Amino acid sequence: MASLLEMKEIFRNADAVCFDVDSTVIREEGIDELAKFCGVGDAVAEMTRRAMGGTVTFKAALTARLGLIRPSYEQVQKLISDNPPQLTPGIRELVSRLHQRGVQVFLVSGGFQSIVEHVASQLNIPAANVFANRLKFYFNGEYAGFDETQPTAESGGKGKVITHLKEQFHFKKVVMIGDGATDMEACPPADCFIGFGGNVIRKQVKEKAKWYITHFDELLKELEER
Per the record's keyword annotation, is ATP-binding included, yes or no (predicted)? Predict the structure, then answer.
């Protein structure tokens, strides 16, 4: 297991940095916001808490939550326009600095493609660097399920994305940053996991992560020291 000093060295020399999105890059949980918007907020928030704690499989939790919400295409678009995701303080500067250093930045999320792509555009991250779940709709815009073939639809999916990125781009050092159990379990294949507690602290992650931060300024400082 890498020491904290070794992890900091990996971060400073990373070819690619993968960020979770909900409660990491943005302040809220996208699925909870969508649930509130569709009038089933409390029930879905409780399911999210259980999923983030790692007590149920991600796919089972996602299926159950979406079965309650059943969002239409119109509702998803209206949520993005009326209540756009709020970026976490410091993330814009951190992503910009990583880009300046020639580091590839990816968003790897159990959230929804349409919302995550909106976030990516604010951070100058190309849509091709977004890995997220895809909602499906019927021709009339009604909810028709989600694409279960996406790796991010399953527990362990973020690790599969990182393995794919390493194979495709031959990255030597990949860092995963996130707040939840699904982020932590992506290391390995990620070379380093940084737990993030700036929006919400997940007890399991805080206790197990060797490197745990509560503000992105801490990572900016690491980059400035070189």
Answer: no
**Are residues 70 and 120 both part of a single domain?**
no
Residue 153 has, within 13 A of its CA and on its CB side, a CA count of 13
Residue 76 and residue 95 in one domain = no
Instruction: Dump pLDDT digits (tens) for 55-84.
Output: 677 788 888 889 889 999 999 999 988 888
Q: Do 209 and 139 share a domain, yes or no? A: yes
108-144 b/e (C-beta count within 10 Å ≥ 16 → b) = bbbbbbbbbbbbbeebebeeebbbbbebeeeeeeebe
pLDDT in tens, 4-20: 778 788 888 889 889 99
Q: What is the 3-state secondary structure (H, E, C) of 186-224?
A: CCCCCCEEEEECCCCCCHHHHHHCCCEECCCHHHHHHHH
Number of domain units in the chain: 2
Note whether 199 and 95 are same-domain residues: yes
CA distances from 118 to 64, 81, 114, 138, 153 (A): 25, 10, 6, 22, 19
Indicate whether this model's pTM tops 0.70. Answer: yes
CA distance 220 to 103: 13
Q: What is the residue range of 48's domain?
A: 34-82
Residues annotated as part of the active site = 20, 22
Query: 74 and 107 share a domain?
Result: no
Residues 150 and 184 in one domain: yes
